Amino acid sequence: MLKNKKLAVIGVGKLGEALISGLLKKEAVSASDICGTVGHEPSLQRVKERLNIEVTLDNQKAVKDRDVILLAVKPQNMDSVLHDISAVVTKKQLIISVAASVTTAFVQERLPEGIPVVRAMPNTPSVMNAGMAGLCTGSGATDEHKQMSEEIFKCVGETVFVDESLMDGVTALSASGPAYLYVVIESLAEAGVKLGIPRDVSTLLAAQTMLGSARMVLESKAHPALLKDMVTTPAGCTIDGLMELEEGKLRVTLIKAVVKAAERARELVNTQSTKPRT
Ligand SMILES: NC(=O)c1ccc[n+]([C@@H]2O[C@H](COP(=O)([O-])OP(=O)(O)OC[C@H]3O[C@@H](n4cnc5c(N)ncnc54)[C@H](OP(=O)(O)O)[C@@H]3O)[C@@H](O)[C@H]2O)c1
Question: What pTM value is reported for the model?
Answer without folding.
Answer: 0.93
